[in-house]
Amino acid sequence: MSGHAPDLRRLFAMLDGRLAPPEQLALRTHLATCKPCTDKLAELERTRAALRELGARMPLPPEEEPNAEAKLMQAIEKRGAPGPRVAWWWLPATAAATLLLALLVLPTLRSAPSGEAPPAGAAGAPREAVEGHGIATVLALRGRVEEGPSPAELHPGHAGEELAPSVFLRTGPDGEVRLALAAGGEVTLGASSSMVLPEEIDGIVRLEAGTIDVVVTPRAEGRPPFGVETPLARIEAIGTRFRVVHEAAFTSVEVTEGKVRFVSLRSDEEQLVLAGSGARADGEGRLAAGPGAATTQVAVAPPPEAEAPGAPEAGAGPGGDGSLDDPIDEQIATEAPMQVRRANGTIDQGKVRARVSRQRGALQACYSDYVMRISPQAVEARVRFVVLENGSVGEIEPNLSVDDAPLRQCIERVFRAIEFPRPRGGPARVFYPIRFSL
Amino acid sequence: MDIAATTTWPGMELALPANDDIVARSQAGDAAAFRELYRTHRPHVARLVQRILGPDSEVEDVIQEAFIQVHRSLPSFQGTSLLSTWIHRVAVNVALQHIRRRRRQRSGPVVMTPDPPEPTTGDVAPEEDVLWRDRMRKLYAALEGLSPKKRAVFVLHEIEGMSAEEIAKLMRAPLITVRTRLFYARKALYAALAADPAFREFLPGGDR
User: Does A69 touch chain B (CB under 8 A)?
Assistant: First the structure.
């Protein structure tokens, strides 16, 4: 009898009929002498049969309510006709005009006391967004700003647009969007960031990645404090102005006015953070005092072997919490801030990021292959490379948190296949950290 | 009987001769055209949403939200996917977003799920009926332990009988990613279900 643990991948492949005949034969031969494997296969077969039977007995989908169609059409009418959407190329040309228009509206909105911001609701009671009114209004935007029900279904945002509860917003490397919240106050989502709007008027804003600047006025007694939540921490405002940065490894806050309550969601530890100071929560739930990383806009912890301080041009990057529920993307949970170092030349980091992002699927495939071969653990890749004057990749060094040559080679191949923008003033060195998780 | 094989998964394109026309008219704001699109696709969207969410009192709301999003996103539909695949993708995304929201609203680990609706077969003996409901509840309670994306892949493959290739197309993800998610979802779920007496005693040959 064999004492080894059954190879689940092969057993599932067999169950699905995905094994090639020679592999199947080899496995069958092995099964004849491996009781644990035979038992496991029988267990998998039974469980699969149970699931299929369960699937067949699933309740029928709900019958359409008699007035469902009418209600849908009514809801659609309220939200407005689809209408032609603005194409991306249109935005830069009119961004200035859009911004100006929005700024003209701003003073009116700002002057409205928060308690009176539409739609009003009883203090202390959960307030639902009133149909026809959004949870927030886009005051101004520039660059690439997308919004939609989920990261997969986004469309360009517009100044003046009312946003529904739970809408997902994402900005590009050149993007920024300022919102007036129906509950009062303003939030500005910085470049390369993403957030989810609250589900109800007094709900919490969820920062998925990047930077958010908040200006809120004191809430009426009995109403919950304004809050921002990241995968690592929750920040409750007590009449204040503050900035929250969330990246893979930490969430930080920097308070300009008033104070906030800063709670680690991992440890429930909390502390009050006063104006002029900051705090930071890491993935282990530890809280630390001190200014947040916000002031520098370099929102990533330097890698242990960080290069000597140069003149990093950095921007907050599209990131993620690395959690399984990260709605931002599939497996590249973090495309952390990128630092473009001036070795000889300089390069447009937004374009670098865009070119790498286009290869997201290929990078995912590299990681998926690793996961299937080795383990489902998260992997950090710190890719340093040089972009030559013709836009091709010269020297490249993908430094991984795991020792796996095929993954390193795969990532290198993907980067080498990218045609980068041509750097100015000679070859440019780029540092591009990526975090993969399942 | 191989039940999965008899399940008609409508993920692939339906015979809709006037598809392009309906899309174009809907995109132009023609309410009648959108109603037609809704009537055609609602049954499949409803099924998909219900399977992914499991027992959830808001299934109807999620279906409606899915169609609102379809309407809203129609201008961005370029025809690079089949219309039905695209609509189902929107529906899956809306359902996943609902799950994330639901999880955020709950504090602490989820151990309770609402009672599932009545099973489809009306002629099941009451005790058996109770068993099935129990299994269904346990399945969806176990699914709460998966990330939404793994949950979707698991349900589409194991319950709906879709192939990994079809799921990859539907979710617009690399095939290897779908397979990876499926593997780890199965590994976790099969272990949980196999350890459950309600499932162990399920079939002849199972441990009693």
Answer: yes
